[in-house]
C-alpha cells in the first residue's frame, strides 16, 4: 500500500507522464491542471486541477529542512526533488497572487554526449575549447536552450579523456558525474555550502584544475572567475544571452565606465570562448535541433577585445572558414540545407533573417 501523501502522489503521477512523454518542464499553477513543455511548446495535461492547498503542501513536505526558513521568509526557493523509478527534477517554487506555483525541470540521469545532443558539427570546436589549460568558457542562451546539457557534455569529455580535479558550484546540482579519469567534487548551494558567495570564495583553496560555476550572475562572480583563470584554472559557466555579441556586452556591463579599459585587458587575457545556442523545432520526427554560434578567442579576437573593436567580431563569425568560430546564420544555413529544420523556422530564429535569406538564395556578403 502506498505511503505517499495524496498531493505527492498526484504530482508524481504528473511527473511520470512527463518523463514518459519526453517533456522538459512541468508547470504547476494552483487551481489549474498541470502544464508541460514539449519540444518547446506549452501544453495542458488532461487532469483535475491541482488545488492551492495541494501545491502548498507538496512544497512544504519536500523542501529540504535547510531551505525551510528561506522558503517561509522569501516565498521562493530552488531545490532538487528525486522520485525512484521516475527521475530527478530541479524545482523552483514561488508565490504568485498569494498562491503557490511550481516549475519542475527533468534532469536526465545520464550525462549526455555531444552526439546525443546533436552537437556533432560543433564537437571539434568544443573539444578544442575544453582542452585549454586555463581561462573562461561561457555557454550562453535563453532559459531552456540546453546550456546545462552542453556544459555537462563538455565536462564529461574532460572526465573521459583527461585527469583533472573538477569542482562544481551549483544551485541545485543538475547532472551527477561518475569519476572516470577525472575526480569530481559537486557542491550544492544550501546543502553543501551555505551560500553561493561562500562557495565562490572557497573554491580556489580546493586545488581544482577545472571549476564549474552554475551561472555568471554578478561582478564578484566574474572577478573570481578571472582570478581563477589567471592562476591556471579552466572555468566553465553559463550566461543568459542570445548571441556572442550580446554575451560580450553583458560581460562589460559588470564594470563601470571608468574601469572599461582595465576590464578589456582582463577579459582579453582570460576569455577562451563563447558557445551560444538555441533549440529549434525539428523538421521531421518532432523534438528540437540545437543550433550554435561559437567564438573561439584566438589572438585576433583577443586583440579586438583589447582595443574595444567589438563590432568587428561578428565579421569573424560570418567569415571564418574553419569550424572553430561561426555564426548562427552559418549554422542555420547548414541545418536548412541538410533538411533538419524548415526555412521558416531558420528565419524565425535567426538574429539576422535578411542576411540568412540572401545566403539561401546563394548571395553571400564579403567580410
UniProtKB/TrEMBL annotation:
<dbReference type="InterPro" id="IPR027417">
    <property type="entry name" value="P-loop_NTPase"/>
</dbReference>
<feature type="domain" description="Bacterial type II secretion system protein E">
    <location>
        <begin position="204"/>
        <end position="218"/>
    </location>
</feature>
<protein>
    <submittedName>
        <fullName>Twitching motility protein</fullName>
    </submittedName>
</protein>
<dbReference type="GO" id="GO:0005524">
    <property type="term" value="F:ATP binding"/>
</dbReference>
<dbReference type="Pfam" id="PF00437">
    <property type="entry name" value="T2SSE"/>
</dbReference>
<dbReference type="GO" id="GO:0016887">
    <property type="term" value="F:ATP hydrolysis activity"/>
</dbReference>
<dbReference type="InterPro" id="IPR050921">
    <property type="entry name" value="T4SS_GSP_E_ATPase"/>
</dbReference>
<comment type="similarity">
    <text>Belongs to the GSP E family.</text>
</comment>
<dbReference type="InterPro" id="IPR006321">
    <property type="entry name" value="PilT/PilU"/>
</dbReference>
<dbReference type="InterPro" id="IPR001482">
    <property type="entry name" value="T2SS/T4SS_dom"/>
</dbReference>
Amino acid at each position: 500500500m502506498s505511503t505517499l501523501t495524496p498531493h505527492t502522489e498526484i504530482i508524481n503521477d504528473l511527473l511520470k507522464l512527463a518523463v514518459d512523454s519526453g517533456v522538459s518542464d512541468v508547470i504547476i499553477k494552483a487551481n489549474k491542471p498541470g502544464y508541460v513543455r514539449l519540444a518547446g511548446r506549452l501544453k495542458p495535461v488532461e487532469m483535475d486541477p491541482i488545488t492551492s492547498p495541494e501545491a502548498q503542501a507538496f512544497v512544504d513536505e519536500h523542501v529540504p529542512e535547510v531551505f525551510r526558513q528561506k522558503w517561509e521568509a522569501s516565498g521562493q526557493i530552488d531545490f532538487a526533488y528525486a522520485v525512484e523509478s521516475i527521475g530527478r527534477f530541479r524545482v523552483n517554487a514561488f508565490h504568485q497572487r498569494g498562491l503557490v506555483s511550481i516549475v519542475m525541470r527533468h534532469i536526465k540521469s545520464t550525462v549526455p554526449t555531444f552526439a546525443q545532443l546533436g552537437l556533432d558539427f560543433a564537437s571539434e570546436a568544443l573539444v578544442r575549447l575544453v582542452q585549454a589549460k586555463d581561462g573562461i568558457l561561457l555557454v550562453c542562451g535563453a532559459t531552456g536552450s540546453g546550456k546545462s546539457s552542453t556544459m555537462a557534455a563538455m565536462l564529461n569529455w574532460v572526465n573521459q579523456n583527461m585527469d583533472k580535479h573538477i569542482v562544481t558550484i551549483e544551485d541545485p546540482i543538475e547532472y551527477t558525474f561518475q569519476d572516470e579519469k577525472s575526480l569530481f567534487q559537486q557542491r550544492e548551494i544550501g546543502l553543501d555550502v551555505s551560500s553561493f558567495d561562500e562557495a565562490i570564495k572557497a573554491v580556489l583553496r580546493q586545488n581544482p584544475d577545472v571549476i564549474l560555476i552554475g551561472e555568471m550572475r554578478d561582478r564578484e562572480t566574474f572577478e573570481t572567475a578571472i582570478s581563477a583563470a589567471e592562476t591556471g584554472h579552466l572555468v566553465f559557466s553559463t550566461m543568459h544571452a542570445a548571441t556572442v555579441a550580446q554575451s560580450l556586452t553583458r560581460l562589460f556591463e559588470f564594470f563601470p565606465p571608468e574601469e572599461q579599459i582595465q576590464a578589456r585587458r582582463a577579459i582579453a587575457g582570460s576569455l577562451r570562448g563563447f558557445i551560444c545556442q538555441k533549440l529549434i523545432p525539428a523538421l521531421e520526427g518532432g523534438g528540437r535541433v540545437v543550433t550554435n554560434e561559437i567564438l573561439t578567442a584566438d589572438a585576433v579576437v583577443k586583440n579586438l577585445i583589447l582595443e574595444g573593436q567589438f563590432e568587428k567580431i561578428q565579421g569573424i563569425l560570418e567569415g571564418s572558414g574553419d569550424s572553430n568560430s561561426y555564426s548562427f546564420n552559418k549554422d542555420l544555413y547548414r541545418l536548412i540545407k541538410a533538411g533538419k529544420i524548415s526555412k521558416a523556422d531558420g528565419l524565425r530564429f535567426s538574429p539576422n533573417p535578411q542576411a540568412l535569406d540572401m545566403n539561401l538564395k546563394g548571395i553571400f556578403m564579403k567580410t
